[in-house]
Write a structure and sequence with these properties.
Elements: E1 6-12, H1 19-29, E2 34-39, H2 46-50, E3 56-59, H3 64-73, E4 81-84, E5 89-90, H4 95-104, E6 109-117, H5 123-137, E7 147-149, H6 150-156, H7 166-175, E8 181-190, H8 192-197, H9 199-214, H10 219-226
Parallel strand pairs: 1-2, 1-4, 2-3, 6-8
Antiparallel strand pairs: 4-7, 5-8, 6-7
Length: 227
């Protein structure tokens, strides 16, 4: 029986500190996957470090949505499924088995549960809330390693070209086609965003941005607030 093919697309911007470990993790957990790194203008050697470990490394205009779309467009042999992975997110050891089971069920799209690493004791609570909210809402975040069947990807035209909330918007559109498969296996993502900006400050900021997005504020306006 032929197994569905998979391509992993990783957007990067100055990720030299973690890109090697990230790519080694993907090669170990998904040995048959085609790995595409799409760089948005790094000046720290990210591209050079990625080249020996990725199947394709290319440059694109900065912005996760544009970079991930560029990575998909660069594939000459399109896969059955796309997996979009942040450079600071690590797949679990049983990722291949978990994804294989979802693919066998005919999953249109889905995501993993997430665990956040860092010093704060509240990060596990943040992760639990993210996973719980995602299961209830059918909305996934990029930290949760979203995977999408190619035909659904084509139907939606890829990620919306916007500077923020591209994962939320993609989820909203995919949810109109099918509910996501929410894998209980957990990817491990870095808590650097929460710890560098302040845990509570980041939590309240993201709640406020999501609320404004739900109310119809533009992604461009929210990106300015986020920065």
């Amino acid at each position: 029986m032929k197994h569905p093919s998979l391509a992993v697309v990783i957007p990067t911007l100055n990720e030299a500190k973690q890109i090697t470990a990230a790519l080694q993790n993907v090669r170990a957990t998904l040995p048959e996957a085609h790995i595409v790194v799409v760089d948005g203008g790094s000046n720290d050697g990210t591209i050079e470090m990625a080249m020996p470990l990725a199947h394709q490394v290319l440059a694109a205009p900065a912005g996760r949505a544009r970079q991930m779309n560029a990575g998909c467009a660069a594939m000459t042999h399109v896969p059955d499924y796309w997996l979009f992975l942040h450079a600071d997110t690590e797949l679990p050891a049983n990722a291949q088995a978990a994804l294989g089971q979802a693919f066998d069920q005919g999953a249109m799209w889905g995501r993993f549960d997430v665990r956040i690493t860092g010093q704060s004791r509240l990060l596990p609570v943040v992760a639990w809330l993210m996973n719980w909210r995602s299961r209830l809402s059918g909305i996934a975040t990029g930290d949760q390693a979203i995977f999408v069947r190619h035909d659904a990807w084509v139907k939606l035209g890829g990620f919306p070209d916007q500077p923020l909330m591209e994962d939320v918007e993609l989820s909203r559109r995919l949810r109109q086609l099918a509910r996501p498969i929410c894998l209980s296996e957990r990817v491990m993502t870095s808590g650097r965003r929460w710890e560098s900006r302040g845990l509570w400050r980041t939590i309240f900021l993201m709640w406020r941005l999501r609320y404004r997005y739900w109310r119809g504020h533009s992604a461009e306006e929210l990106a300015r607030l986020y920065r």
